Amino acid sequence: MKIILTQEVSGLGAAGDVVEVKDGYARNYLVPRGFAIRWTKGGEKDVAQIRRARKIHEIATIEQANEVKAKLEGTKVRLAVRSGDAGRLFGSVTPADVATAIKSAGGPEVDKRRVELGSPIKTLGSHQVLVRLHPEVAAKLGIEVVAA
Fold first, then answer.
1. How confident is the model at residue 98, as a pLDDT?
2. Could you tell me the pTM of the whole model?
3. Residue 98, Cβ density class (10 Å: 0-12 exposed, 13-18 middle, ≥19 buried)
4. Average pLDDT over residues 89-114
5. What is the Cβ-side half-sphere exposure of residue 76, based on CA atoms within 13 angstroms?
6. Is the pLDDT of residue 95 over 70?
7. DSSP bridge partners of 124
8. Cα separation of 115 and 97, whole Å?
């Protein structure tokens, strides 16, 4: 099935790309979650609009990505969350929480879709988070999850 991606999907493409995927993957996963829309002749207009929006939010060059990476890796991020007695969190830390914490710590503004958590963060302590700034540049960021 031919689809138009509305958001970046790891291993598949970026927003505005027209890709061919298995019918079930598109019908059961990508379209219901809003990651893609079905390709139509009229959808080509949507592709142009999605690409314009992507250009505005995208880091254009590798040099810019490396500058943002240096700022990110130099930022100390502390995230205060509610937790129980044994250090387990009520819920988990989401990519949106990490993006907000980076901005409040004085770091550059990062899109929550670019933050990749290796596994769900459900405990207090230090954790590593990957931020994909550019297809060729990723920043490893250490965050400290503390009790609120």
1. 93
2. 0.66
3. buried
4. 89
5. 1
6. yes
7. none
8. 10
